[in-house]
Design brief:
There is one protein chain. This protein is α+β, with helices and mostly antiparallel strands. Helix content is about 30%, strand content about 20%. The strands form 4 sheets. It has a 7-stranded mixed sheet, with helices on both faces. Strands 8-9-10-17 form a 4-stranded mixed sheet. The protein has a 4-stranded antiparallel sheet with strand order 12-11-13-16, sandwiched between helices. Strand 6, helix 3 and strand 7 form a beta-alpha-beta unit. It is globular, with a radius of gyration of 23 Å.
Length: about 375
């Protein structure tokens, strides 16, 4: 910040699935759709603006919960109530003017409400503004030893969650009952948030990931279910695992599809090394897919994770950050046809020479129950 002459970084989030900037700076997430604004000053403790009564604020000094925060300001604003959309901005401007901020760096400006950004820019007369996302993204993507320990713990929990599902899934259950087993096990083991996508169908019909409101189908003998467990662990760091479960025997088509994506994952992992360009990995991955008569990846098939379910770097053609040691990557190549959904997903930490051992210990296979 001193090199860039930035006096304050400004960020805002409303959730802890994709609100990692706020949590990375303060250790506390935004939740339930309520805005939480953080101002990281270059020369002193942070200012945090969050839900609370009008006109209330607190000065903090070495607070055990709000570490690094010197001022906590409150306002009852809601994204669903249009006339409150500038309330957080009014308090942010008050805090920055009090500190004499002249150059402000927005972190994730494009994801902030237009009313918030516009009000800050209009009211901070004479100040200049810059996009500070790039250098924050890179710093956030490289995990410390403490963070890596927590990331490994998240993967261990997901292995345990998947094992619990295997122990209880049976014909007659609805898909939502299967994901409810996963959710309960994750939460009692220390998970805070996340998603469980599971969709079933008869073998011979694709079974893609679907959200909870579509998980009403009842499993029958011989059906298969695709399950994605994408939850955080204690401390809030994300990993994700995906496998296919068969209540019977897998078809040769499913076996071949899984083997294809397993090999594609292995190939991509061989390219993920410090200094590698994400666009080169993505290009090579698609060449591999095409050589094996598989569709090229047009979605996001590998990406960083941390306090966000999805964070940089993204393994695709438009990413500018290079691979570095200490990054946590989820790698999940897949493809689908009308009769099959082939998927695999696991996490890896990048070391000095390449990726280390898979963080998940669940075997890379189709599970026949």
């Amino acid at each position: 910040m001193l090199e860039l002459k930035i006096d304050a970084l400004v960020m805002q989030a409303t959730n802890d699935w994709l609100g990692g900037y706020v949590k990375w700076f303060t250790d506390l997430p935004a939740t339930n759709g309520y805005p939480r604004t953080v101002i990281f000053h270059s020369d002193g403790p942070m200012t945090v603006i969050e839900m609370g009564p009008f006109g209330t604020s607190r000065r903090l000094d070495d607070d055990d919960l709000h570490r690094g925060v010197g001022e906590l300001m409150h306002t009852p604003s809601f994204f669903t109530i249009g006339y409150t959309h500038e309330y957080d901005a009014e308090l942010a401007v008050t805090a920055m003017k009090r500190r004499g901020c002249r150059k402000i760096g927005f972190v994730g400006e494009g994801a902030m409400p237009n009313a918030f950004v516009t009000r800050v820019k209009n009211d901070m007369a004479g100040a200049s503004f810059t996009d500070a996302s790039e250098f924050v993204d890179r710093a956030k993507a490289i995990k410390s030893a403490e963070e890596i320990t927590l990331i490994r713990r998240a993967a261990e929990i997901q292995d345990a969650v998947f094992a619990e599902v295997l122990a209880h899934i049976k014909p007659g259950m609805r898909d939502i009952e299967v994901t409810a087993i996963a959710q309960r096990e994750g939460q009692i083991r220390g998970s805070e948030q996340g998603i469980f996508l599971g969709g079933s169908s008869p073998v011979g019909t694709r079974s893609p990931f679907v959200p909870r409101f579509m998980q009403g189908r009842t499993l029958k003998k011989g059906d298969h279910l695709s399950l994605l467990i994408e939850i955080n662990g204690p401390g809030g760091f994300y990993t994700e695992i995906a496998r296919t479960i068969i209540l019977g025997r897998a078809s040769n088509e499913l076996k071949d599809g899984f083997e294809a994506v397993r090999e594609a994952q292995e190939f991509s992992l061989s390219l993920i090394k410090p200094g590698a360009k994400c666009r080169d990995i993505h290009l090579a991955h698609n060449e591999f897919m095409e050589r094996h008569a598989l569709p090229a990846e047009l979605r996001l098939y590998a990406h960083g994770q941390g306090y966000d379910m999805v964070e940089r770097p993204l393994i695709r053609s438009d990413e500018t950050i290079k691979i570095e040691a200490g990054m946590n990557l989820a790698v999940h190549p897949g493809y689908e046809t009308p009769s099959m959904f082939a998927v695999i997903c696991d996490n890896y930490i990048v070391g000095t020479e390449g990726v280390g051992a898979c963080l998940h210990r669940t075997p890379k296979q189709i599970f026949e129950i």
